[in-house]
Amino acid sequence: MPSQVQAKSVSKGSYIMIDDEPCEVRKVNKSSPGKHGAAKYRIQAEGVFDDRTRNITKPGDAMLLSPDIGKEVGQIVSKDGTIAQVMNMDTYETEEMQLPDDLDVSEGEEIRFWDIEGRYLIKGKNNS
Question: In sequence order, what E strands does 1-128 have?
Fold first, then answer.
């Protein structure tokens, strides 16, 4: 379940949901408050799964959703092209995941992946 954060507490490198898509914040600009208005925050973020740039502008006290990110370790059980079956090393559950183009792994190797609101993102080989 996503948690809520105020727009004024969002910083570069944090994660928020924009258009129901998890995004990493790249830039935050604060505009000065006017005579009767509150300060506005312009947030530029990049989608974690689709790499699209998204921009939003919100008052500082506006609430934004922040996705829950589980950082996990898994083992490649089987591999078919760019799809791999990965077993979570903590729960022993198996999930299908899309392999990144630049990752060269074979069956039996361990990887690091993120579980973001039920979607999976492989981050690389497990070097521990």
Answer: 3-6, 15-18, 21-31, 40-47, 53-59, 63-66, 69-80, 83-88, 94-98, 110-116, 119-125
